[in-house]
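A common beginner's mistake is to predict each chain separately and then try to dock the pieces by hand. The better habit, illustrated here, is to supply every component at once so that their relative placement is modeled jointly.
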Amino acid sequence: MTNFRTFRTGPSRRGFIAGSAAVGAGLLLPMGARAQSEPKKGGTLRVGFTQGSTSDNLDPATYNNDFMFASGYAVFNTLTEIAPDGTAKPDLAESYEASDDAAVWTFRLRDDADFSDGKTVTAQDVIDSVRHHMGDKSKSGIKPLLEQITDIRADGDKVVIFELAAGNADFPFIFNDYHLGIRQSTGDGIDPQSRIGTGGYVIEAFEPGVRIELLRRDDYWKKGHAHFDKVVILKVGDAAARMNALMTGEVDLIDRPDLKTIDLLGRNPNVKVHTQDGTLHYVMPMHTDTAPFDDVNVRMALKYGIDREQMIETVLRGYGTVGNDQPIARSMPYYNGNLEQIAYDPERAKFHLDKAGLSSLDVTLATADAAFNGAVDASVLYSESAKTANINITVDREPDDGYFSNVWLKKPFCCSYWGGRPTPDLMFSAAYAEGADWNETNWHNERFNDLLLQARAELDQPRRAEMYGEMQKIVKEDGGALIPAFGQYVSAMSTSIAMPEHISEMWDLDSQRFIERWWMA
Amino acid sequence: MSRLQKLVLGRLFLGILTLFIVSALMFIGIELLPGDLAQQILGQSATPETVAAFRAELGLDQPPYVRYLDWLGGVFRGDFGTSLASRRSVADLLGTRLANTMFLAVYAAVIAVPIALTLGLLAALWRNTAFDRGVNLGALSAISMPEFFVAYVLILFLSIRFGLFPTLARIDEASSLGDALYRTFLPALTLILVVVAHMMRMTRAAIINVLAAPYIEMARLKGVPRWRIIVRHALPNALAPIVNVVALNLAYLIVGVVVVEVVFSYPGLGQLLVDAVSSRDFPVVQAVGLFFAAVYITLNVLADVISMISNPRLRHGR
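With all components supplied together, the output reads:
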C-alpha cells in the first residue's frame, strides 16, 4: 500500500520528521492519501529527476535511467503491466493464456489500441519490438531474459504466439519491462528512434540530459488514465537544487531527496514526503567457489557478523528494512514470512568460524559508492562490527567508474544492489541460477536449481508457493549473498499531487508509471 | 611584416599545435579511464555478448590509434563526428549548449568587468580609506567562498526566503531576452561575485604600482587633479597586466562554470562535458575540450595584442 509515514508509529527521529511533514499535508488533505478525490484531468506536472544524461536516446535497448523509464512508459505501452497487488495484468494485450505446460503463450492484442499516428497495433509491431532485443546484434539489457523464446509468430493481425524452450508460468511479467515498449514495425524491424507510441502522451520536446516535455493524447484508448495535460521532466542532478526547486514550487515532484536534509522539506506545508517499500535491496555477494567463501560456515560467520540495524539507522537514515539474506521482498508474491530473521550475533559468527576450523578470518571487501549510495560507509561499518567476531575485513575502495564492469562479478567479495524483479522466478533466474549471466555469487545448488525449473512451469499456486518458500530458505542458509537491507524508495512532492490508494511499490514512483496513473488534486 | 602581425601569426600557429596536443592528451585520458561507452551505458545489466555487440556497432572494437586517426581525419574535413551515445551529430549537440554557455558568460562579463575596473580605480584613488578597505574585504570574502556555497547562500535568501528569483535557471522556458536575463540572474550573480575580486585587485595593484613612478610625481607637482592623473596617466600604463587578468577571468566564465551549472541546473557546455566523460563519449569530449582550449588560446592572444597596442615601446619596437 501507499505508505505515508503518519500511518506508522515509532519513536525514532525519522518517524517524527515524516510525521510533521504529513501533518502539514493534513491541513490541506484532512485524511491524507485516502481522502483524495477521484482522478481529474488537467494541470501540468513538473518533475525534477536525479538521473538523465546527454547520452540518453529513444532506442529502448539503451534505456538505463529513471528519466528514460518514466518517459518511456508515458509514451509507449507494454503488453502487460504490474498491478498494485504485484500481479501482472494486460495492458496492450487484451488477454493471454498459456498451454498446459506453460511453454506456449498466446497473447491477444486489444482492438482499440492505436498509435499516436492513428494506426492500430498489430501482431507484427509486437514481434518486431521484441525481436529488437534478441539476436546476436542485440545490445539490450533484457537480452538474457528473452533467450528462452524459441519462436515468435503471428496468428492473424491481433494474436502473437510465443514458444519457449521450457515452461514459464511467470512469462507475462517479462513484458512489463521498460525495454519492451511496443514500437511500430517498419516491415523490417523497428525504427529505434521513433517517437510514435501507443501511450497517453506524445513527445513535444526532448533534449537529452536536460528535459522532456510530454503532451496528453486526448484520444488515448486506455480510459481512466493519463490525467495531466502536460508533463515536463527536468534533469536536476544536484540534490540541493532538486529540493530547493520543490520548496519554491518550481517543480511538483522530485525523486531521491537528500536523506540528510529531508527534514527541511517538512517545514514547508505544501510538500509531502512519500516512501515505498519496494524490491530494492543491497547485496554483498561472495563467490561461493573461491576460498574462503567456498565453506558454508565461513559464509554464515560473515552473515552473522554484520550489524544490519546499525547500517539502516546510519547509512540509510532509517529508510530501509533489515534483509534476511534472500532477495524476495515482503511486497512480492510468494514471500516466505516463516524464515527466522538473522541478526547481528558475534558469538554465532565465532561458532561458525570454529566449525570451519578457523580461529579468525581475514577477507577483503571491494566497495564503491557506485554499487549503491552509502556502500563505502556500510562497508566500513561492517568491518567494525565484524571485528568482535574475530573477522578482519579489509575495505578496498574501488573507483566508481566502471565498477560494474571491473569489480562486480570479478572480485570474490564486493558490494552491489538489485532494483529487484517482480517475481521470485525472475529474481532467482537473474542472479542465483546456475549459469545465469549475473550469478554474482557463482553459486550452484542442485536442489535450488531443480526447484527453480519445476516452480517455473508449475501452474498450481499452493505448490508453487511451497517451492519458492523452500528456495528462499536455501538461499538464506547456503547462498553466498549477504543481503543486509532492503532500501525504501523516497520521493517528495507537492501536496497537490494525488495518487490512487493502492500503487505499485515494485519500483520508485508507482513503478515509474506515475505519469499515466497520478493526477493533480 | 609588422611586429604585431608576426606575433599574431606565431601565436595562431602555436595555438593550433596546442589544440592537437590537447586532443591527443584527451584521447589518451579517456582511454585510461576504466570502462568504455558500452560498459558505462549497459552498467550492471552488461553481459559479455551485449557489450561485444555494442562495441561492434560503434566501432569501439577497433584499436585506439585507428579510432583517433579516424576522428582526426573527420576533423580535417570539418566533421566532428556523431556522439557515440545518442547518435546525434556533435555539431547539433553542441549548438544550444554553446549558446547557453556564451549567454551566461557574456551576461556575467558585461556586468563584472566594468564593476571590477571601476572599483579597482576608485580603490586606488582612495587608497587606504574606509572605501578601499570595504571593497577589498567584500571582494575577498566573495572569492574565498567556494562558488557552490555562494550559490546556495544566494538561493537561500533571494529564492527561498524572499522568493525573488527562480532556483532553476530554465533558459529554455524564457519568452524574451528580459525573461532570460531574469531567469539566469542568480547564476550570473554567483559568477560575478566570484570573478570581480581578481580583476579588481589587479587593477588596484597595477595602478598603485604606476603611481610610484616619477612622471606621476611630476604631474602631481604640476597640479593635475588626482582622478585625471589616474585615468589619463596611470591607467594606460597599467593596462597590460589588467587586460591579462580580464582575459583569464573571461576564459574562466566560459570554461570553468560547471559547478554553477549543476547547482542551477543550467544546460551549458560544462554539464555536457561531464556527461560525455562519464559515458566515455569520446567525440563529444573532444569537441567540448577543443572548444575550451581554443577559448583560452584566443583570449590569451587577444590579451597580448591589446597589451602590445597599449604600449608604444612594444608597438614601435625595433
